[in-house]
């Protein structure tokens, strides 16, 4: 038997490059397949997000003009109300000023009348002077307010009495109907 020594395979430069190129191509193909398999759920999620965005844009396209019109209308109404409130404030200011002037004129006239010496043919009548520190208009307003408060109390009492009397009448009517 003859012994043979193993002879190493000698590859040429071209064959070795071709094998390395095939291995690299296989690695790239395997990596691409793995990447595509991993990307499938992500692509599905992107598709769903795109569909949702499309629906949102459709709704926005339909609803936005009406909403903007309502906002414009509200803005105009607020502007009108602001102008009306401004006018009302000016009218109130003018009213307060004219009322203040009227009160001052009335106080001056009343003071002028109280300073006049009245000469009456009958000296037995004595005019009582009410000495108060508050102006006449304020005192009159206070008396009017007290009268309104008392009037409201009286009306509440009358309404309460009428409600109680209705309740009592209903009670007795229902008892009369129950008796045969």
Summarize the SSE layout with pairings.
Blueprint: H1 13-115, H2 136-178
Tell me what you see in this structure.
It contains 2 helices and no strands. The protein is mainly α and 180 residues long. The longest helix has 103 residues. The radius of gyration is 51 Å and the shape is elongated. It starts with 12 loop residues before the first helix and ends with a helix. About 3% of the residues have low confidence.
Helix/strand/pairing category: mainly alpha
> What percent of residues are in strands?
under 5%
Principal-axes shape call = elongated
Low-confidence stretches: 120-125
User: How does the major sheet shape up?
Assistant: none
User: What sequence of helices (H) and strands (E) makes up the elements?
Assistant: HH
Rg value: 51 Å
Helix content: over 70%
The helix count comes to: 2
Descriptors:
mainly alpha, 180 residues, elongated
Short synopsis of the structure:
With 180 residues, this protein is an all-alpha fold. Helices cover 81% and strands 0% of the residues.
């Amino acid at each position: 038997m003859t012994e043979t020594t193993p002879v190493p395979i000698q590859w040429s430069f071209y064959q070795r490059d071709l094998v390395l190129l095939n291995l690299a191509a296989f690695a790239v193909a395997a990596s691409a397949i793995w990447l595509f398999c991993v990307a499938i759920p992500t692509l599905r999620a992107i598709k769903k997000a795109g569909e949702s965005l499309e629906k949102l844009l459709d709704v926005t396209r339909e609803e936005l003009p009406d909403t903007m019109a309502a906002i414009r209308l509200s803005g105009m109404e607020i502007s009108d109300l602001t102008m009306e409130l401004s006018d009302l404030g000016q009218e109130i200011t003018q009213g307060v000023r004219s009322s203040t002037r009227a009160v001052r004129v009335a106080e001056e006239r009343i003071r002028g009348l109280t300073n006049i010496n009245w000469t009456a043919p009958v000296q037995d009548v004595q005019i009582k002077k009410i000495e108060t520190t508050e102006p006449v208009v304020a005192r009159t307003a206070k008396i009017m307010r007290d009268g309104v408060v008392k009037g409201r109390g009286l009306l509440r009492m009358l309404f309460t009495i009428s409600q109680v009397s209705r309740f009592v009448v209903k009670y007795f009517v229902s008892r009369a109907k129950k008796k045969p």
